[in-house]
Every structure is written in structure tokens, then in C-alpha cells.
Design brief:
Elements: H1 2-20, E1 24-28, E2 31-34, H2 35-45, H3 57-76, H4 83-97, H5 104-118, E3 120-130, H6 137-155, H7 160-167, H8 173-176, E4 179-183, H9 190-197, E5 208-210, E6 213-224, E7 228-237, H10 244-262, H11 267-274, E8 290-291, H12 298-306, E9 317-318, E10 322-332, H13 337-350, H14 353-368, E11 371-373, H15 375-384, E12 406-410, E13 414-417, H16 418-427, H17 438-460, H18 462-465, H19 467-496, H20 498-507, E14 513-514, E15 517-525, H21 528-539, H22 544-551, E16 560-567, E17 582-583, E18 587-589, E19 592-602, E20 605-606, H23 613-635, E21 638-640, H24 642-652
Antiparallel strand pairs: 1-2, 1-21, 3-4, 3-6, 5-6, 7-8, 7-10, 9-10, 11-12, 12-13, 14-20, 15-16, 15-19, 17-19, 18-19
Helix pairs in contact: 3-19, 4-19, 5-13, 5-14, 14-17, 19-23
Length: 654
């Protein structure tokens, strides 16, 4: 029975080994690529593929092989040794690792705290004394003494705004007297947020430190969070030069537009025609939704949030960027915590709150990983640390041989050495730790250092702990290499290879043509009679200023005009069948009537390279890339295992 039991175990092990054995789908030179990766990537990207042809397994395999060929080329060129690449990969891995370095209980507590704060907005001012978070003890003490002096002046009753202007080292203080406006959770660093939300309205906080330096914050108001709004706007930019006439003209334009709105003309159409915010004018002026403190203009926010009813329109107003008219599209109150939980968890992991989660994680890792420490060596270290630590003047011993050795064995496979701990003790002098006597201090620092080592070990082994983490990091690694390779072999080449670019442009010049273009003045009005009158003036060769003076009377704007060089299907030109030089016929589009004064007609012609260089470079890049994989197949030996591919097809198509 004993031998039979061993035989059954052996058979089970062999069968399991065969079932789990990876099968090479294809090889590139000596590198093997396995079917499990292909299946995983195919299934992962299936819903993202818009081109049905790419869902075809044969074509997808061709794309996948092409992708891996490029990655192999990147390795052959040694791009993975590039310092910038390595730093970016480690930065990404570090960001991704944050999702695995948390404690769910602590995270939930921080999410609930953040949600409670999100329901409020506080208005605060601050005084800042700058000091780098890694500053020397002397510089740190100097900054601390400055903020203590400021704090004492405030306690004596000095006005906060005056003290801010006199002492604050925030560069913006000259303009805002320290006023930061309204903000809610996640808008400031966590330490600052804590101070602001824990300070009573009308009071100022005790000095506190952030990564920027020492602060004192005064809370001047608190209100319920206004949520977010979506608005549309019409904007006339401020002239870039201090010319009074140009400023007055811009201001008059926004007032003329407002009069047309009051006359019943459509806001979206006017935004489309006249707004100089080109990122929104084509969408009727609609901006992305925003909350307090998210825009650069506090004035714009105040006007936007002052509108109460959908489609309500503000009067013209001025911001630091220009003149605006704002229309309310919709208001969005703060969502419930259930609706916001995913978003809040992500934000909690990304800001200083993550340190709280990390400390909690260390406690869990002490239970997960066993470690043994060298008590004798720790006692030796205690003898060389003295009271100079407290004055930040302690120096590490010159003779470290007696202190060298294994200080910790972690999880039976990771050895930690004493110089790391001694260096840590030296660095912690800046933390102003006052624990006494020295023996207790060293014990305290050892536990802190050990927490860091546990978290570091856990971080280093995430690929072994979590398969999905390993896969994501590998995908990003290859993608980053491919980006660097494309930049080197395709994008930069297309920009710098002037001979190749000129040759490509010459062979494809017919693809880069101007349509018929027209140098025109476009006159518009909601009144057919007005536009007919405008046309009669144009027939008499009257100027734009003359026409506006005759038609726009008594503060009523009946006709608007814009000028420029337009292609034949651009803007309202598409409504005119055969535009000719001179004055056009009248056409109607929507609620508007239009007439054109066509000053010049430029017939269809080939563009010069300078007129379409960006498009040509883009097309040339695509041309190079399309031929690149064929070149790589000649450089590398590719072999596809058709038997394995047949099994892959069968598995995916089940």
C-alpha cells in the first residue's frame, strides 16, 4: 500500500506537470514566447479592438509577433540599459505597487474622513516659511525660529494679512495676501488639509510642517461644498499688448454679443461664430465640468456657481484672461460615498495619506514574515551611539569592522547588514527624536528601520506574490522599450531624414492639396431684411465699419462680421454652391442669414512641404513603420509552432 500510494503521488505530479507546462507558441532567434501570454493579451484586448480584422487570430498573431520583434530589436540595441528608461520603468512599477501596499481597514477610515471633508469647502489664508524637507538641521532650525516669531506676532494680535505680506515666503503673497480661496479635500497636501479642516473659522493654527516648509493657516470661512457645474462660455481674449483701443474693441465685441443674446439669438451659435476659446467654440462653448478651486480664474468660478437655473446666462464680465459670458448647463451636487468610493480610494493611495496605510501594512508584514535579529551586534551599536545624536552632531564610527555583519535574517532568505542600520541612525538625527536614554533610542530606531525593510522586501517580491502585478509590469516594460525604439527608429528618423521626407512628399504630393480657398468677410444676422440691406451696401462697396454704423443703431446689434481665409467647405461656406469673387447671394443656415464679400479666390493647388509638414511627417512615419516589420523578419529568425497555435485557436474559440 505504501508503494502504491507513492506511485499515485508520482503519477499525479507528472500529470500536473504536463498540464501546467508552458508551450512555446513561437520563437524569435533563441527567445521563446508562450501560448499563455498570447491568450491572455488577446482576451484582454478583445473589447478594445475596433477593427474586426484584428480579432482574427491569424492576423492577431501576426501583430503580436511584429510587436515582439520590435521588443527584441530594442534589446539588441541595448535600449534597456538606458538610465532614463530604467528610471521610468521603476517609477511606473512604484506607482503600480501602491495598489498592493495598503491596509483595507485603514484605507476605509481615510476614505470616510475624506468624504466627510469633501462635503465642505474652507476658505483659508496661510503664511509659509520655506525649508526643504531634507534641509540641514541648521536651516531647519532657522526656518522653525522664523515661524515661531511669526506665530508670536499673531498671538499678540497683529493682522494676519499684514504679517503674511511681511513674512510669508509664498511667491503669490504679493498678489493674494496669503489668501488661497476655497478648497476641499485632496486640493492641498494632507498635512495642510488637516490643519485647515481642524481650525475653527476665524482662528489660526499652530505652526506645522509640510514638504514645502513651515505654515500657519487661518480659516476665514466654511461652507457646504457647491459640487460641480457644467457651463458654456463665450470668450473674447484680452489683447496681448497694452493698447487701450484694442482693449476697448474687445470689450465692445463681448457687449455686442450679449445684446444679440438679449435679442433672442442662440448662445451656442454665437459661441461657435465668435468665441475666441477655440478649444470650446466648436462645441457651443461648453467646458468640462469643474468644482471650486479647479480653474485658474476665481472670478470665472464665482460667476459660474452664482447661476441657479439651467440655461441662465450671466452678464459680460472680465477675468484675467479676457471677457466672458457664461451659460449654466447643469449643476452636480456631491455624490454619495458609495458612488465615490472607488475614486476616493484611488486618491487616498496617491497622496500623503498613503503613509498612514504603509505604517499599518508594516504591522501586518511582521506577522507574515519571520525574522531573526543579531542581539549581540545591536548591543555593540548601542555603545557607539551617544547623546550627540540629540544635538544632531553624532558622527558614525570610523572603525566599522567590529560593527559589521548580519544584523537580520528575513524570511530565511534575505540577509540584512549592519551598515544599513547605522546609516539609518545617522540620517534620523534630522527628525529631532527625543527618546532617551540612548539604548531606548536605538531600539526605537531599529523597529522603524525594520518596518522599512519589511515593506521593501514585500515590494521587491510583489511579482512573486501577485501574478497580475507581474504581467502588468512586463507589459509596461515592453511597451516602454517599444516607445523608445519607435522614437529612435521611426519618429526621430522621420523628422531628421530630410532626403527621405522630401522624396516621400514628392512621390505623394497629390495627397496634400489645398481645396479652393476664399479671402472673405462673412456677415450674419437673424433678420433677412438686415442681411439684404447689408448686401446692398456691399454692392456699393461700402466698408465694414460703414455698414455696422448704419445698421447697428441705438445699442442693438443686428449684424456681425468676421473675416479670414477659408477653405471651400469650412464654416458657412459649404452652404454656398459656387462662390465667386464679389458679393454672394444670401443663404440661410439655422436661424441665421449670411452674405459674403469674397475678396479673392485661390483655386485648388498642391501644398508646399512647409504648408503641410506635420501631416507629411506623420504619414512618412506610418510609411516607415509599415515596412519596418518586414525588415525585422529578415534580421531575426522567426519560427511559429503551428501545432501549438491550433490548440490556442481551439481554446479561444470554445
Amino acid at each position: 500500500m505504501k508503494y502504491l500510494f507513492k506511485l499515485i503521488l508520482l503519477i499525479a505530479f507528472v500529470q500536473n506537470g504536463f498540464s501546467q507546462e508552458k508551450q512555446a507558441l513561437f520563437t524569435i532567434d533563441n527567445a521563446k514566447y508562450y501560448s499563455d501570454e498570447f491568450i491572455r493579451v488577446y482576451n484582454k484586448n478583445l473589447d478594445l479592438v475596433k477593427d474586426d480584422s484584428q480579432k482574427d487570430l491569424d492576423k492577431y498573431l501576426e501583430l503580436f509577433v511584429g510587436y515582439k520583434l520590435k521588443v527584441q530589436k530594442a534589446y539588441r540595441l541595448g535600449l534597456h540599459f538606458n538610465t532614463k528608461y530604467q528610471n521610468e520603468l521603476m517609477s511606473y512599477r512604484g506607482q503600480l505597487a501602491k495598489n498592493y501596499m495598503n491596509d483595507s481597514k485603514v484605507t476605509n477610515e481615510l476614505v470616510e474622513q475624506a468624504y466627510e471633508r469633501i462635503n465642505k469647502e474652507v476658505k483659508a489664508s496661510h503664511i509659509l516659511i520655506l525649508v526643504d524637507e531634507n534641509a540641514s538641521p541648521e536651516d531647519t532650525l532657522k526656518a522653525y525660529n522664523k515661524i515661531k516669531n511669526v506665530y508670536q506676532l499673531l498671538k499678540e494680535g497683529k493682522k494676519f494679512e499684514e504679517i503674511a505680506q511681511q513674512y510669508s515666503e509664498d511667491p503669490s503673497v504679493k498678489d493674494n495676501k496669503g489668501n488661497l480661496g476655497y478648497f476641499s479635500a485632496f486640493r492641498m497636501v494632507y498635512q495642510f488639509e488637516n490643519a485647515a479642516f481642524n481650525t475653527t473659522v476665524g482662528q489660526f493654527s499652530a505652526p506645522f510642517r509640510t514638504k514645502f516648509g513651515y505654515h500657519i493657516v487661518k480659516v476665514t470661512d466654511s461652507r457646504k461644498n457647491r459640487g460641480e457645474v457644467t457651463v458654456a462660455h463665450i470668450m473674447i481674449l484680452k489683447p496681448s499688448v497694452p493698447d487701450a483701443a484694442l482693449h476697448e474693441k474687445a470689450k465692445q465685441t463681448i457687449e455686442d454679443i450679449y445684446k444679440k443674446i438679449q435679442q433672442g439669438e442662440n448662445f451656442e451659435s454665437l459661441a461657435n461664430q465668435f468665441s475666441e476659446d477655440k478649444s470650446t467654440s466648436g462645441k457651443g462653448g461648453v467646458l468640462q465640468r469643474f468644482g471650486s478651486g479647479q480653474l485658474a480664474s476665481e472670478k470665472f468660478e464665482e460667476v459660474a456657481f452664482s447661476l441657479n437655473d439651467k440655461n441662465e446666462i450671466s452678464k459680460p464680465f472680465e477675468s484675467q484672461f479676457g471677457w466672458h459670458i457664461v451659460k449654466l448647463i447643469d449643476k452636480y451636487p456631491v455624490q454619495s460615498i458609495q458612488e465615490m468610493r472607488t475614486e476616493l480610494e484611488s486618491k487616498v493611495r496617491k497622496d500623503e495619506r498613503s503613509l498612514i496605510i504603509t505604517n499599518s501594512l508594516a504591522t501586518k508584514l511582521r506577522k507574515k514574515y519571520l525574522f531573526t535579529k543579531n542581539e549581540k551586534l545591536i548591543q555593540k551599536i548601542k555603545k557607539v551611539v551617544n547623546d550627540e545624536f540629540y544635538s544632531q552632531t553624532w558622527e558614525m564610527p570610523e572603525n566599522k569592522k567590529e560593527l559589521s555583519g548580519e544584523i537580520v535574517v528575513l524570511n530565511k532568505d534575505k540577509k540584512l547588514y549592519s551598515p544599513s542600520f547605522i546609516n539609518y541612525i545617522f540620517s534620523q538625527q534630522k527628525s529631532n527624536i527625543k527618546i532617551k536614554p540612548v539604548n531606548a533610542l536605538v531600539d526605537y530606531l531599529f523597529e522603524k528601520w525594520m518596518d522599512e525593510q519589511l515593506i521593501k522586501y514585500y515590494d521587491e517580491n510583489l511579482e512573486n506574490e501577485f501574478v497580475d502585478f507581474k504581467n502588468i509590469v512586463e507589459e509596461y516594460r515592453d511597451g516602454l522599450l517599444l516607445f523608445d525604439l519607435m522614437e529612435k527608429e521611426i519618429w526621430d528618423r522621420a523628422k531628421t531624414d530630410t532626403v527621405g521626407l522630401n522624396s516621400y512628399f514628392k512621390n505623394n504630393a497629390k495627397n496634400y492639396m489645398w481645396s479652393n480657398r476664399y479671402d472673405i468677410d462673412v456677415y450674419s444676422s437673424t433678420s433677412q431684411k438686415v442681411i439684404e440691406k447689408t448686401k446692398s451696401y456691399l454692392k456699393k462697396n461700402k466698408s465694414t465699419d460703414y455698414i455696422k454704423s448704419k445698421i447697428n443703431k441705438k445699442g442693438v446689434v443686428d449684424v456681425m462680421v468676421k473675416s479670414g481665409l477659408f477653405e471651400e467647405n469650412q464654416d458657412v461656406l459649404s452652404e454656398f454652391k459656387t462662390p465667386q469673387k464679389g458679393v454672394s447671394e444670401i443663404v440661410k443656415k439655422g436661424n441665421y442669414y449670411f452674405v459674403l464679400k469674397i475678396k479673392e479666390v485661390k483655386p485648388s493647388q498642391e501644398k508646399t512641404l512647409d504648408e503641410c509638414r506635420g501631416k507629411v511627417i506623420s504619414d512618412y512615419q506610418q510609411f516607415l513603420e509599415n515596412n519596418w516589420v518586414d525588415e525585422l523578419k529578415k534580421e531575426f529568425k522567426v519560427e511559429i509552432n503551428q501545432d501549438v497555435f491550433a490548440k490556442v485557436k481551439s481554446q479561444i474559440l470554445k
